[in-house]
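In keeping with the milestone schedule agreed at the kick-off meeting, the structural modelling team has produced records for the first pair of proteins. Each record is given below as a sequence line and a structure-token line. The laboratory manager (R.T.) confirmed that both were archived under the project's standard naming scheme.
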Amino acid sequence: ELSLSVMWGANMGFVKDIVPQWNAYLDQATGGQVEIVVYPGGTLSKATEAYEGVVQGVSDLAVVAYPLTRGRFPVIETFVLPGIQYNNSVAASHIFNEGMKLLKPAEHNDAHFLWGCATGPGEIQSQVPVRNRDDLKGLTIAVNSGNRVDAMKLLGASPIMMPTPDWYEALQRGVMRSALIAGEVLDGYRQMEVNGDYVTVTPFLFNMVFGMVINQDSWNSLPADVQAALSVMPESLPPLWDKFNQKGYKLNAEHKTVEVIRLSAEQNAAWLATIKPVAAKHVADLDSKGLDGQKILKQVQDLADKYNKQYSDVAPYLN
């Protein structure tokens, strides 16, 4: 039995659907040698402490949301840089999963990376329409990572960084009038009740990445066939957030009249040009740590180009 620490609650799709499917595969692939015992809701380790919990042996495995601990995983943070487009969760998951295995970031050396997935794009969900840069001027917008703060400031908005569970009240009270996030929060955090009258498609502003990580001693203690089985990402995982987003946006549209706004090609190009300094700063930060920032950024961008071509539907849950 391997303990798995998960930040999400017991009713979240990853916990109630993906883990049982994974266990069924592992049972067949290993002849019943291994079973994953999930501990949901952060009962073993909080979201921001999941990686260190694995390193210290609090749990054998954990789902790690790397961007929640800004600065701890500088190479991995490249995958969530504004300015890199992710068409959907399938493309984003393959980009991250392959990228981690190619880059092998030293910041991850104290725990073993099994596989990773990603939410893919998020959108500007707003109480007011955002059709162009002028509509962003002074607009209070919720974000959940520092590089998104930088990008939204460059675009003229007034970003507010706070944990996603706190957004509902802030949106309800008018502390902020919009949010940059994946559509699943409209359902999972019931934000459809206080936000989402307008949805602006911005696949180059948001991505969140998660890794399935195992304690190094636990990994070393396992026979080779079990290691091989654990290293296979569940087939149902890459499209998971597209399904979550589809459900969130469907419920949102049932709750009220919603306008989906798609920027023109010219606007997309102008917004991307405006936020270029975010990537430049990140490259400089990587260089200052003795890493080749430009090479790392190019590797991620090349993978994005590869998988965006393969999975070309942009925000398919809004089609």
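The second protein of the pair:
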Amino acid sequence: MTAAGLRRLAWLVLLPLCGMGPSGTAPAPGGAGSDTLTTAYEVSGVRVVQRVSPATDIAAARLYLLGGTRQLTERTAGIEALLLRASQYGTAQFSGAMARTGSLVVLDADADWTVFGFTGLAEQFAATWRILAERVMHPGLSEAAVTQARGKLLTEARRRYTEPDARIHVIGMQALFRDHSYALDPNGSPQSLVGITVGDLQAYARDQMVTSRMLLVVVGNVPRARVESLVTATIGQLPHGDYHWALPPAPPQRQAGWLIENRQLPTTYLLAYFTGPPPTSQRYWAFRVATAVLSSRLYQAIRVERGLSYAAYAPYHDWAIPVGGAYVSTPKPDSALTVVVDQINRLIQEETDYARLRRFIDGFSFDYLADNSSAERQADFLARAELYLGGYRRGEDFMRQLHSVQPHDLYVAARDYFNRVQFAFLGDTSRMHGHW
């Protein structure tokens, strides 16, 4: 497909998220996006972004409880995840009724929010929503429910803190975000989960389940009137509170450094993390593309050309503070690190060929569109545009901004952000042969 064809596809898929045409006007009848309508409104203190899609029988609802790790302390890390997980066991109604709807429930605590929602048939939307809302409004927090939920979260946490592939991420976050809320685990550490009491959960539910912390995104064949009615009758009854969303502060700038955990493992795990500009910055787009270019080059140089690893790429965390990096698992960490540093330096010191960059961005755009075609991923796209960019309508600029990135922009982004690297190491330190 040509570059022009890819850009056309971008408009067809992403602009309906905003219900807008390329000029920022409503689409003409029968034109691109005419089967969709995206609006934002407030119901009983709850901010709602809704995309109505009459052509599908699937609907996704995502309730974003804002704040993420900024709501936590070291002692309370994981409290929101534990609260909502425990609500599943509050009464037999929750598990039995939810199963009958056939909907898939999602509960994901992350750096900037906890998302709680479902994907299912549009005809079952009202029934599923009432169950979900009941868990938010009146979570069952008996000792038995909390014990059962805590056990499951502890199992996941112990795996996260011991299995090397997960553990290296924990080390990397602690290295990059020292003295910053992002260093806290939104799903809880083994220590914090053990210490959270039923009283803590009850107090958190009373104080933090407020409508000012909530963003609801609905995508699918659900009339707006039905959404308004359901919200009014359920979570709209909660206290409003005084929460105000804002992008988190950037972490303090530090010189490049290492956080090392020496373990006798057959494979060594290396992870380099660096932060980028906020999503509201024009340089954000170049940073995102530069990280994707680095990922492609690491794969080629480390796996294809040298055979040092089956896993070599640049992770990217699409948070309010975007994070890029470089990851490799290898039995030869000293050799792999040399390649990682060389590829980072190449992006810092050399401008990418224009034609090659255009082809790369076209491919990146196509993959992004394919990954965001489902109702639940479109809901996530709308939420990020609403919260990170200052309004869901600004999401329509996504492809235009990506395609506006020039080779010099890539060079500047790499120069300004790729040199603020914090390295995490997990494995046998003797294999480094002093190459730190």
